[in-house]
Design brief:
The structure holds 2 protein chains of 2 kinds. By secondary structure, chain A is mostly beta strands. Helices cover about 0% and strands about 55% of the residues of chain A. The chains are: A mainly beta, B mainly beta. At the A-B interface, strand 5 and strand 9 of A face strand 5 and strand 10 of B.
């Protein structure tokens, strides 16, 4: 089993739709969790950290489920500009980020 | 706008060349990282520096040699690379390595796209 797993997609959704991605991790000792967005041939950009209590930033909501060892990202009211690859990252006690392979999102007009 | 800068943006080198990649951050961060990313794959950690000391080397071949001259600068010296080393090389920085809200959030530079002929 990979340390961090994501559904590669693509998720094709119409504008205005709500879409959710999950990311599972295998190391129960993991303490820090992040979502990044990566556009084609660009660097990953930090979208949000994921806290135990869950957190929201505008149309984006991130949640952590420690019992089932996954994090989720919910995007409401999708925009064309949300089309990108969404990478989760999990930081283990060795201070190493493990990235998931990413989920591709295409928002269609 | 990224506060982590990398030069050059693109680099083409032969297998016998020696070149260096440079990274600079202006956020006062004390941890800096090198990653390698191949097409359609996630970034893979290569090296981690904390307070200018090498903390993690992910068993990277010696043809890659990192250097951290000061807390703002990170270099990656390249020598005798192979064509399979062609990739996007990303630099990142964070406040530090300790766990905790925002402390280990990593911010990436735009990367250097390296082609080895």
């Amino acid at each position: 089993r990979k340390e961090v797993e994501q559904d590669p997609g693509p998720f094709n959704v119409p504008e205005g739709a709500t879409v959710a991605f999950n990311c599972t991790y295998s190391n129960s000792a993991s303490q820090s969790f992040f979502w990044y967005r990566q556009d084609c041939r660009k660097e990953p950009k930090l979208l949000m950290s994921v806290y135990s209590s869950g957190n929201e930033d505008g149309r984006f909501t991130a949640q952590l489920n420690r019992a089932s060892q996954y994090i989720s990202l919910l995007i409401r009211d999708s925009k064309l500009s949300d089309s990108a690859t969404y990478l989760c990252a999990v930081n283990s006690r060795t201070y190493k980020y493990i990235f998931g392979t990413g989920t591709r999102l295409k928002v269609l007009a | 706008d990224t506060e982590v800068t990398q030069t050059p943006k693109h680099l083409v080198m032969g297998m016998t060349n020696k070149k260096s990649l440079k990274c600079e951050q202006h956020m006062g961060h004390r941890a800096m990282y090198w990653y390698k990313q191949k097409a359609k794959k996630p970034p893979e950690l290569m090296f981690v520096y904390s307070y200018e000391k090498l903390s993690i080397n992910e068993s990277v071949p010696s043809r890659f040699s990192p250097e951290c001259p000061n807390s703002s600068l990170l270099n990656l010296h390249l020598h005798a690379l192979q064509p399979e080393d062609s990739a996007l090389y990303l630099c990142a920085s964070s406040q530090g390595l300790r766990q905790g809200r925002s402390y280990n959030e990593q911010f990436f530079g735009p990367g250097t796209r390296l082609t080895v002929l």
